[in-house]
Design goal:
By secondary structure, the protein is mostly helical. It has helices spanning 17-26, 48-66, 71-78, 82-92. 47% of the residues lie in helices and 0% in strands. Helix 2 (48-66) packs across helix 4 (82-92) and helix 3 packs across helix 4 (82-92).
Length: 102
């Protein structure tokens, strides 16, 4: 509640990241594909920027899977703004769903 400051409502962005991540794990529909091995399994150590990029990509793929590609819901769950979610998806090369036009 300290993180919320003057906000009258608590949002996911006010929660510690481990709490937000645990809610992602609870909402998992199917096992996520393993994108990168854990550091102990990796053999040679990746550059931090490379590792971070891979983990962010895995996070946003999983987030979108859990949220059924609903960016607004992904925003609420991750604590990021909708534009930030779109920016991260773009940086990670993750396409967003398009609305069917009838």
């Amino acid at each position: 509640m300290i993180e919320a400051g003057q906000d009258s409502t608590l949002y996911p962005k006010h929660l510690p990241s481990h709490v937000r991540m645990s809610s992602l794990d609870q909402g998992r529909r199917k096992p996520a594909a393993k994108t990168s091995p854990a550091p102990r399994e990796a053999g040679p150590v990746l550059a931090y920027a490379t590792y971070k990029s891979l983990r962010e990509q895995a996070y946003f793929r999983h987030l979108m899977e859990v949220c059924d590609h609903d960016v607004t819901r992904a925003s609420q769950l991750s604590g990021l703004s909708v534009p930030s979610v779109y920016r991260h998806l773009c940086l990670a090369g993750i396409p967003t769903r398009t609305k069917n036009r009838g």
